[in-house]
Amino acid sequence: MLLILEHYFRSYSARKKVAEVLYTNGLSIRDSKIYSGKVEIPISSVANAAGVNRKIVYHTIEFVEKNYPLKVIFEKLQPAANLSNIAPEMGWDVLEIGIKKGKFACTIGKVITALFDYKCHIRQVLGEEPITGSGKLTIVLEGTIPVDIISQIRDVKGVGAISLHTSQTDVDKLICNFCEIKYCPRRVPDVEEA
Questions:
Q1: N or C, where is the chain less crowded by C-beta within 10 Å?
Q2: Lowest mean pLDDT segment, chosen from 70-74, 90-94, 139-143, 168-172
Q3: pLDDT tens-digit map of 79-90
Q4: Contacts of 191 (CB under 8 A, 6+ apart)
Q5: Is the pTM of this model over 0.70?
Q6: pLDDT at site 169
Q7: Which of 123, 128, 80, 69 is closest to 104 using CA atoms?
């Protein structure tokens, strides 16, 4: 997708900024307007996010609607909910895994299989494999992840850095040699704890 944006917007750096904001936020263009799902987004909000003036946003919309491949792509974009920021508040763990370039597809399968073998309840999987550089896999798990699985995932070919975001209050239980633990101090206390 980013190659397509690069191709069409190579001569229009300001319009490219707008297109990137639309793409990364899942904002679509329909009938000369910008939408997040069914909600219309103000042009000024997109301009502010892209760091351009409103006129550039209008030119970008016009450009997209005149180029059929871009029109098809931007008409179908949809936003996606990302549970990773609220997971610690729900008592869930978030596992972030860096994936080495060229190893994305096979690594995902092995990581998911390992989680399945440990009977982990997966709430959400988000993955991104950029054209250049390494990929990233974010997995939201209901409850806490067994520590033993970190070493198994670490041994999967193609796995880079591993980070665990957790709501666990007993930090001593989380320390291991295989990942970077990120304790969530804003955890909402249970009713019994309050």
A1: C
A2: 168-172
A3: 988 888 888 778
A4: none
A5: no
A6: 55
A7: 128
Domains along the sequence of the chain with CATH: 2-76 (no CATH), 87-183 (3.30.70.260)
DSSP string, the chain: -HHHHHHHTTT-HHHHHHHHHHHHTT-EEETTEEEETTEEE-HHHHHHHHTS-HHHHHHHHHHHHHSHHHHHHHHH-------TTTHHHHT-EEEEEEE-TT-HHHHHHHHHHHHHHTT-EEEEEEEE--SSS-EEEEEEEESPPPHHHHHHHHTSTTEEEEEEEE--S-GGGT--SSSEEEE-TTPPPPTTT-
Q: What percent of the chain has pLDDT above 90?
A: 48
Sheet holding 159-166, edge to edge: 121-128, 135-142, 93-99, 159-166, 180-183
Residue 177: pLDDT over 90:
no
Q: Compute the distance between CA of residue 94 and CA of residue 124 in angstroms, rounded to an integer.
A: 9
Residue type, 188: V
Instruction: Confirm if 137 and 97 have CB atoms less than 8 A apart.
Output: yes
Q: Tokens 């904001």 sit at which residue? A: 21
List the 33-36 sheet strands across, edge first. Answer: 28-30, 33-36, 39-41
| For residues 45-68, average pLDDT | 97
